[in-house]
C-alpha cells in the first residue's frame, strides 16, 4: 500500500502509530486523550511523542513540510 502511494522507506506499525500521535498532537488533541486513543497505561509513554514533536518543530525541514501540507 505504501509503495502504491509513492511512500519510500520502511513503514512499520510503530512508525504509523508515531505518525498518528504526531498528527493528533499537531491538531490539538490533548496528551490525555491521545493516551486513551493509543491504549497506553502510563502517561510518560505518551509524553515521548510530544517531546519528539517539539524536536521536529525546531527543524527547518519540518517547517517546510508543514507549509507544504
Description:
The chain has one domain (13-68). Helix 2 (31-38) packs across helix 3 (43-57). It contains four helices and no strands. It has 69 residues and is mainly alpha-helical. The chain has helices spanning 13-26, 31-38, 43-57, 60-68. The model has no long low-confidence stretch (mean pLDDT 80).
Please render the helix and strand layout as text.
Layout lengths: L12 H14 L4 H8 L4 H15 L2 H9 L1
Helix pairs in contact: 1-3, 2-3
Q: Separation of termini?
A: 21 Å
Give the SSE order as H and E letters: HHHH
Q: Give me the number of helical elements.
A: 4
Spans where pLDDT lies below 50 across 5 or more residues: none
Helix content: 55-70%
Main sheet, how many strands, which sense, barrel? none
Question: How many beta-strand segments?
Answer: 0
Question: Which structural class should the secondary elements be placed in?
Answer: mainly alpha
Write a brief caption for the model.
By secondary structure, the chain is mostly helical. The chain has helices at residues 13-26, 31-38, 43-57, 60-68.
Kindly list the characteristics that best describe this protein.
69 residues; mainly alpha; 4 helices; globular; 67% helix
Amino acid at each position: 500500500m505504501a509503495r502504491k502511494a509513492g511512500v519510500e522507506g520502511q513503514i512499520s506499525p510503530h512508525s504509523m502509530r508515531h505518525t498518528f500521535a504526531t498528527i493528533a498532537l499537531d491538531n490539538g488533541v490533548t496528551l490525555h486523550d491521545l493516551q486513551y486513543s493509543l491504549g497506553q497505561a502510563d502517561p510518560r509513554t505518551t509524553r515521548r511523542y510530544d517531546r519528539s514533536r517539539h524536536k521536529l518543530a525546531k527543524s527547518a525541514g519540518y517547517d517546510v513540510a508543514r507549509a507544504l501540507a
